[in-house]
């Protein structure tokens, strides 16, 4: 099973090399929305199970590239009680009906005042992998109140998962670099995080 897992990670890595992130699907129109950021976590779990340092090293730049996509495209600052927090959110650039559900999106938007915001929230919910769970609905009942991109309604679980994955992968990246180079800065960073 390790070979299959490794091949899947390599395949997804090739997608990141080409696009900078993992699109929500294999069609051109999915280039407007990402897949949830799970590649780093997959690589981390694979590394934990196999301790395959050579594979980890070969994937480092790819993982950093995907994390950079999230840093550049999905990061927002939220102020709570005067303290600024940097968080990540699902936020598709698309503000039109989804091609795969065009008619449904047109029909649903008939009852909504801000159609472009509605379509962006729908696409962003699809980006999350939790397409249309009531977690995205303001009233917890109807899609007409969808507010996926509303940063005041961020779901701590997804933010925590991303932060946890980012921390674990960066720790492994730093550890791997410490073992392959003699950088005092990388040694300091690794020692600061723990072994």
UniProtKB/TrEMBL annotation:
Catalytic reactions on record: alpha,alpha-trehalose + H2O = alpha-D-glucose + beta-D-glucose
Keywords attached to this entry:
Glycosidase, Hydrolase
| Keyword Hydrolase attributed | yes
GO MF, one term, reads: alpha,alpha-trehalase activity
Highest taxon of the lineage: Eukaryota
Sorted alphabetically, which Pfam families does this protein's record hold? Trehalase
Q: What is its EC number?
A: 3.2.1.28
Top-tier EC class: hydrolase
User: Does the entry feature the keyword Phosphoprotein, yes or no?
Assistant: no
What the entry lists under InterPro entries is as follows: 6-hairpin_glycosidase_sf, 6hp_glycosidase-like_sf, Glyco_hydro_37
Any single GO BP term: trehalose catabolic process
Instruction: Tell me its family.
Output: Belongs to the glycosyl hydrolase 37 family.
Q: What is this protein called?
A: Trehalase
Q: Which organism is it from?
A: Teladorsagia circumcincta (Brown stomach worm)
Q: Tell me the organism's taxonomic lineage.
A: Eukaryota, Metazoa, Ecdysozoa, Nematoda, Chromadorea
